[in-house]
Structure formats: C-alpha cells, structure tokens
Amino acid sequence: SLVSLIFNTVYSAHHIIFGIAARSWWFFTIGIYCAVLSIVRFVVLRHKGKNRFVIQFTGIMLMVLSISLVGTVILAFVKDRGTEFHLIVMLAIAVYAFTKITLATIKWIKARKSKSAKLITLRNISFADAFVSIFSLQRSMLVSFEGMSEIEIRIMNVATGSAVCIIVFLLGLNLVQPKRLTKRKQ
After folding, report:
1. DSSP code of 148?
2. At what angle do helices 25-46 and 117-144 cross, to 10 degrees?
3. Terminus-to-terminus CA distance in the chain, angstroms?
4. Residue 114 — left, alpha, or beta (φ > 0 → left; ψ -120 to 50 → alpha)?
5. Which of 8, 92, 108, 133 sits a CA distance of 20 to 30 A from 41?
6. Is 115:123 a contact under the CB 8 Å cutoff?
7. What is the pTM (predicted TM-score) of this model?
8. pLDDT < 70 positions in the chain
9. What is the pLDDT of residue 179?
C-alpha cells in the first residue's frame, strides 16, 4: 500500500502540473481526484485509533469525490472530448489502467474474507482509483483512434463517466453503512 501511495502521489502531481501547463481542466481535475485519494490512503495507513473513524472518513470522502466526478463528466460532454495521444503513449496508459484494475481485484480477493477495516477500506480506495483510470483511458482511446463520431464519443464519455460516478459513490456508501460493518465483525 505504501508503494501504491507513493506512485499515486507522483501520478497525481504529474496530472496537476500537466493540467496547468496544458490548460486542461480534465487533467487538472483528475490530478486533484488522485491527490485526494492519496491523502485518504495516507490517513488510512497512518491512523492508529478507532477503525470506525477511518471507515466513515473514507466512505464520506469517496461519496464526495463521486459527486465531484459528475462535474468532470459534464465537462467531458460540454467542453473537453479527450486528449489525443500517440499509440505508444496510449499503450502505456492502457497498461497502467489495467494494472490498477488487476491489483484492485487481487486486493479485493485477499480482503474478501478479511475482517480488517484497513484492508476493506484500502480495497475500496483501490477500486475507486482504478475505475477513474479506466474512464480516463477510455476518453483518450476514443479520440486517439478513429471510428467514432463526435456525438458517439460524447455519449460514451457520459455513459462511462456516469457509471464510474455511481460505482465510486457505492464504494463509499458500502463503507458508511453501519449494518454491513457489524455483519462483517460477527
């Protein structure tokens, strides 16, 4: 988790700096999203008090982040259709996104039977991070490779972005619901 935290912090800093330099609201907002997830991951790793606080804090932060993602989905529809990249860059982005989803799935399998609040919380953070990476990959792929019209790209961006917003919200809600947590403790 510490390596993931460091990697995500560097990744978010890159997106924020690139977003400012290129004047891209998309990269800037995704950078901020990843930075907030890094902060939440740091709080989870460093917190030594009651697990309930960490779970509630993370759940609320994921729900707030999902609401802020709605703004990026609207932005993707109205203004920014995506950034076109060279094939090699797209392959690197795809490897990164699929590595994140694979690692998140492995963490989910490991934490599935665990009663550790930190493992469950880190699992949800990993999935929230991975799904946003998949959304970012999809946006770039649609404009980097030919085959879809402008309106089809916008529809795909809204559909995928909305699904990611809902998934991230549900990941947060899963942590906030006290009934599910008491069932896990038993």
Report:
1. -
2. 170
3. 26
4. beta
5. 92
6. no
7. 0.81
8. 1, 80-83, 178-186
9. 55
Q: What is the pLDDT of residues 3-39, one digit of tens each?
A: 777 888 888 898 889 889 888 777 888 888 888 888 8
Map tokens 């902060």 to a residue.
39
Distance (Å, whole) CA 136 – CA 123: 20
Tokens representing residue 9 in the block: 């912090």
| pLDDT for residue 182 | 47
Sign of CA dihedral 145, 150, 155, 158: positive
Q: Are 105 and 43 in contact (CB under 8 A)?
A: no
State both tokens at 120: 């469950």
In the prediction, which pLDDT does 1 show?
66
| CA distances from residue 87 to 25, 26, 81, 139, 146 in whole angstroms, order as listed | 23, 20, 18, 14, 12
Could you give the CA distance from residue 106 to residue 123 in angstroms, rounded to a whole number?
9
Distance of alpha carbon 161 from alpha carbon 69, whole angstroms: 8
